Amino acid sequence: MRSASGKYSPTSPRPVYCRKKLCGTNYPLSICFIVVNEFCERFSYYGMKALLTLYFVTYLKWDKDLSTAIYHAFSGLCYFTPILGAIIADSWLGKFRTIIYLSIVYVIGHVVKSVGAIPTVGNTDVHIALSMVGLILIAIGTGGIKPCVAAFGGDQFDEEHVSERQKFFSIFYMSINAGSLLSTLITPVLRGDVQCFGGDCYALAFGVPAALMIVALVVFIAGSSLYKRNPPQGNILLQVCKCIGFAIKNRWRNSKHESKRKHWLDWAEEKYSKRLIQEVKMVLRVLVLYIPLPMFWALFDQQGSRWTLQATRMNMAFGNSFNIKPDQMQMLNALLILLFVPIFDLVIYPLVRLCRVKTTPLRKMATGMIFAALAFVAATLVEINVVKTVVDPAPEGKCLLQVINLAQGDISVKIPNNDLFPDAIAYLQDPPKYEMLELEAARMELNIEVSFSGSKVVCQEKFEDQKAHSLIIYKVDTNLRCLLVEDNVEKNTDGKPYVRFFSTLQEPMNITVGQVNFYAPPDYSMSSNDTVDRNEYPAVHCDLQSEDCPGLNLGLLDFGASYTFILMKESGQIVAHRMEDVKANSVHIAWQIPQYVLLTAGEVMFSITGLEFSYSQAPSNMKSVLQAGWLLTVAFGNVIVLIVAEGAGLEQWKEFVLFAALLLGVCIIFSVMSIFYKYVEPENMDKINLEDTKEEDEGDGKKSSMMLDKTGKSTKL
């Protein structure tokens, strides 16, 4: 109620506009809903994306190159679709309705993706189809709302509240990184520590991000009555494209008949205003600088693909009680961003300026490229040491072979036309490595001569190319016997060790390792090969019908290893002799921290500075155009990785070197280009705009005068 003077009395209810703001501030209450919406959406996106590479490799059984290619194809699509979202919002639906409708598409994509991760839903082809449809819908949803949410948040502020709007964008950016940090910590735990359908629970790990996206949509709709909604103003991006297209077309038609103009865009003057043409010129100057930038993103986005796959072949134990997941390492980027942004702004940049070094935006971006290249140099050094524990698969026409001697004495093994085992093989000796055996056919039978204590036996065994085999030599009474078994030499993608049991006992045995049960058949037979948790196993439960089995000491089953345990009776007790077929991961995952530190430092200097540079160098109504151009550099960066992953066929460390060298070369090109770039100061930009507006007004005035002279009447143009 108003008092007699027309003012609100202290006891009167607050006016409507006050109820739409946070108490005592100029912050609209609506931004709370937008910030929470962004936190939940980023949680859903990064939580799902953190699992993708391992999902492709372990669940869909794709190879690492195809998995990397699809991962980056999805990432690239997520940065192509913002242009679609911007066009829809600015030309048709407006930001509010675009966010609502595309968020619904986003939710459907998450649900479809989660259903595709349920093993009981169809066969592998169905899982692949659902996964791809889900990813396409997610890319349309997340990309479509990307250019709308932040801008919609900025629209909630009045024009005079500039400082409040700037603080909102800082809070908005923090919510993005908070969502990313928490999701990359939580979803890998849901994947690996929760078991469902007999394995890693991808359905749950994808389902939780789906639930968060539903929450994001509900929260955003809940604030509907508070939002300030600006109607669609027409898409400036389309106007820019039409202006450029008309200039090219007009120049092509008339270049032979008219004199040359100062700039090729001046050929658009017949249809478009001088101010628009001038602004397009300014934008194109920046977009030309964007041409080398995709190479940075080609390196940056490999955190979720190549670097995650590298982590699967490393030792992930921190002490005896905590093991990190390979896909959890991505949370380092979000965590370091939160730490580095204030450190760079408050400490590093001021110190550099104290040293009288001019820190221009383009110099910062070039330095960020160098840091990213150094990150891949660090990744290369790690990869070179990681592969030392990896068994390279046999190529076509060859197979891998190791010999396990259970004959209770030294033996010698001879293979026709080969000299693979020149030295005697000791009893229960752990084979040091696999030998490469050449075959004349894809499947070939060989006569293998085994000598023991002066006697010889010839074993006929069939070998297959591109496979790994163990030849087990054992003795029954006084006779030598041979058994050829196929081995798994590929490291498990989640780092868990492989275990199998070869029994020399006369009775079957059941063995429980952690939560996994093994059945070891009697009389020199091999159990199935399965993964167990990385742990110390001093007394594994075993079950033998005729006598007690006090427990088997398997020792530490470490990350990435493959073990064969030989079960035999010694001194009246059953023991398990360990053979390490594939060596355990010897490089600790902490060695990935330097490459994450370098890459995140590069991101702070490159990405954040690049956004500020784009904003400052663009006319006020062209900022969305440069934002679209910036997002496209991310998309094309992912396309580069897709091409290299599928086409280069290099060893991983060589691929890392290639990317580092390419980025350094691009950095040199970018640095040369930046020398010739002239910065536009905000006050000069305003001056240009005012001069162009004045010229347009003068031109319009002349046209009006001419029409007035001819008709004698005033005409509204």
UniProtKB/TrEMBL annotation:
Q: Which reaction does it catalyse?
A: glycyl-L-glutamate(out) + 3 H(+)(out) = glycyl-L-glutamate(in) + 3 H(+)(in); glycyl-L-leucine(out) + 2 H(+)(out) = glycyl-L-leucine(in) + 2 H(+)(in); N-acetyl-D-muramoyl-L-alanyl-D-isoglutamine(out) + 3 H(+)(out) = N-acetyl-D-muramoyl-L-alanyl-D-isoglutamine(in) + 3 H(+)(in); carnosine(out) + 2 H(+)(out) = carnosine(in) + 2 H(+)(in)
Recorded hits in SUPFAM superfamilies, A to Z, give: MFS general substrate transporter (SSF103473)
Residues spanning the membrane: 43-62, 68-88, 100-122, 128-149, 170-190, 202-223, 282-300, 331-352, 364-382, 625-644, 656-677
Q: Which InterPro entries match?
A: MFS_trans_sf, Oligopep_transport, POT_fam, PTR2_symporter_CS
> Looking at the record's lineage, which domain of life comes first?
Eukaryota
Q: Which GO terms describe its cellular component?
A: apical plasma membrane; phagocytic vesicle membrane; plasma membrane
Membrane topology is: Multi-pass membrane protein
Cell compartment(s), UniProt: Apical cell membrane; Cytoplasmic vesicle, Phagosome membrane; Membrane
Give the record's GO biological process terms: dipeptide import across plasma membrane; innate immune response; protein transport; response to yeast
Sample GO molecular function, one term:
symporter activity
Q: Which UniProt keywords apply?
A: Cell membrane, Cytoplasmic vesicle, Glycoprotein, Immunity, Innate immunity, Membrane, Peptide transport, Phosphoprotein, Protein transport, Symport, Transmembrane, Transmembrane helix, Transport
Which portions of the sequence form the region Disordered? 689-717
Report quaternary structure and partners: Interacts (via extracellular domain region) with trypsin.
Family affiliation: Belongs to the major facilitator superfamily. Proton-dependent oligopeptide transporter (POT/PTR) (TC 2.A.17) family.
* PANTHER family in the cross-refs: OLIGOPEPTIDE TRANSPORTER-RELATED
Protein name (database record): Solute carrier family 15 member 2
Name its species.
Answer: Oryzias latipes
